[in-house]
């Protein structure tokens, strides 16, 4: 393994956690849906709600820039910059859960330590198995 290849391997191992963005989970927000959305104004929220066309079924939608507007939770869904991104509204009476994203510290630590351990193992193997020439 050349020095350049070793640098690339180390750089890739260090940048992998940054590129992945850490492990995110959804944390359910306590309280009434109106209060949960109001306390997280302008954030991305995952809203679980009862479907109007099938009252027994639940559906989930991720809303960006979520806010309460009258008797509904309003936000945009779809990919950022995508033509499919559009305004969505969900009646507060249909909402069963509101959750906000958070970084899971243990999973993120594992994501950082794992690649570093892999790079350290590769470097150690390179050092141990490379013959010394005089």
Structure overview:
This is Lipoprotein. The chain crosses the membrane at residues 109-129. Helices cover 37% and strands 33% of the residues. It has three helices and six strands, in the order αβαβββββα. With 134 residues, the chain is of the alpha+beta class. Strand 3 (58-69) and strand 4 (72-77) form a beta hairpin. The relative contact order is 0.21. Helix 1 (3-20) packs antiparallel against helix 3. The radius of gyration is 23 Å and the shape is elongated. The chain has one domain (21-114). The chain has helices spanning 3-20, 33-39, 105-129; strands at 24-28, 45-50, 58-69, 72-77, 86-91, 95-103. The two termini are 19 Å apart.
Strand-helix topology:
Elements (H helix, E strand, L loop, with lengths): L2 H18 L3 E5 L4 H7 L5 E6 L7 E12 L2 E6 L8 E6 L3 E9 L1 H25 L5
Antiparallel strand pairs: 1-6, 2-3, 2-6, 3-4, 4-5
Helix pairs in contact: 1-3
